[in-house]
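Quick question, first post here. What does this chain look like in 3D?
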Amino acid sequence: MSASVRTLGRQTVIYGLSTIVPRFLNFLLVPLYTYFFSPAEYGIVADLYSWAVLLNIIVTYGMETAVFRYAKMEGNNAFASAFYSVLFTSLIFLFIVIYLSGTIANLLGYPGYGRYIIYFGFILALDAVSAILFVKLRLDEKALKFSVLKISNVVVNVFLNVLFIVLLPKFLVSFGIKFNRTVEYIFISNLLASLVTFLFLVIYIPSFRFFNFRVLRTMIVYGIPLMLSGIVGAINDVIDRQFIKYLSPPGVDAMSQLGIYFANLKLAVFLVLFVQAFRYAAEPFFFRYAEDPGSKESFARVTLFYVFVSLTVFLFTYANLPLFKYFIGSQYWSGLSIVPVVLLANVFAGLYLNFSMWYKLVDKTFLGFLIILAGSLFTVIFDYFFVPKYGYEAAAVVRLFSYIFITVLCYLLGQRYYSIPYRIFTMLKYFIIALLVFYFQYEVLNNLTFMLVILINNVLLMIFVLYFIYAENLFKPIRELLWSIRSKLKL
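> Answer (accepted):
Ran it through. Tokens below.
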């Protein structure tokens, strides 16, 4: 195992702590929401946060990746230019949102709830500026501070949710005071948590010279295609929720269907955690080692390891789904059938992340935009035809095939512009083995007792893991990697 790959492994674990812990804590909010709110109420949360995903990309307009791209060449000028630019545009965005909050609420189908829109305006503006400050921590390799702040953000959010949804209503009712528990307090909690995080990040606001127009112009030219790619990527990721909201089959409560769909998406949390942790470590890794001898071989090996770990998490989640389903209310269990489909979609989402680095490294970001655009068109077209007939199950299947489509397309174009010797047939072998294990779990073990199903599922999972370690001769390198991570964390 090369030194660079071991470095990526260590960084993935360290940054993974800042991702896994917060996401897991956030996941603990899912049972809170699904046990206290109906699917229709939770559908409002799904709807508004789907728009937040899209708008978050717009208000940062590719500046996070642009800082990584130009920090080595331009030094602090790159960070300062990105920070002040995002700060200025975020304030403009916030003003527009406040001014049009009532109109936006009416358009989204929530008349009289313009305050919801204002909450999200403040959340998005604060998070956009904080995102650039978090980039500074990553550039300075301050992984511990990065992790502490990320975790603190979610701890505050979780505490406030529990306070507003559970503790405060019980406390007030004991004094005969009625407290109307609504999803509004979910948004208020998020806003306060974002504000606390921003205040702790204020110390990283650059004290050096103002932004450099030349550097800023270069970064914007680089970042805008990434923003466009992010927008259409977000559309690809969240547009299904709008189709469920507006085009669900006749005779069903669309917002309830949306709530059920969103709750079951959350059960893929472990795979989402890994992909996010990998992303945090992979972006600086690919840029840092792109010019090194043997870098392409290292990139190919990284991708192989990604495939293995993501498939392992896929099998782990499904193996223990009879237990994990209790993390959501029983009124949401009708959507459990989409969980393995969504898990596989997330596997391909991470694989696409691996394949997509070529257009960032060779400054062909517009081609990246076209790839994501093709995937979004795929999603829109097939959701339009199938969601009205089959509901959210169709949305999950379309999500999977959309990610498969853009992953294959990105790989084929990448081999033309920045050829990397990926072990495609080896990766396909592990995909086939994992799918055979899943098929056996799904078809053969379905009628066994609860504990026996979980036991056999996890035994099959361990066999898959041991086979990969044996086939790739990894027993000694894994021992060395674990020792290295242990030493790093002690520091």
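Residues 287 and 361 are 7 Å apart (CA to CA).
The chain has a mean pLDDT of 84.
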